[in-house]
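Quick one, T. Sequence first:
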Amino acid sequence: MFLLARLFMIVPSVIAGWFVSKDDVSYWVVAFAIALVFIVLTIAFELYVHPRLRQRRQR
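Structure tokens:
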């Protein structure tokens, strides 16, 4: 389970590394916030954009 969590945090931690020093205390907080943004964007895409793209293909 721990390995799965680390795999999900790779991309947000790389992005957080661009803005926050790895030695900073808030590094993982920033990485977690970026991960939450990715999750919200994925859900929004699946709920709103993906069905509209599927309708266009069927026409």
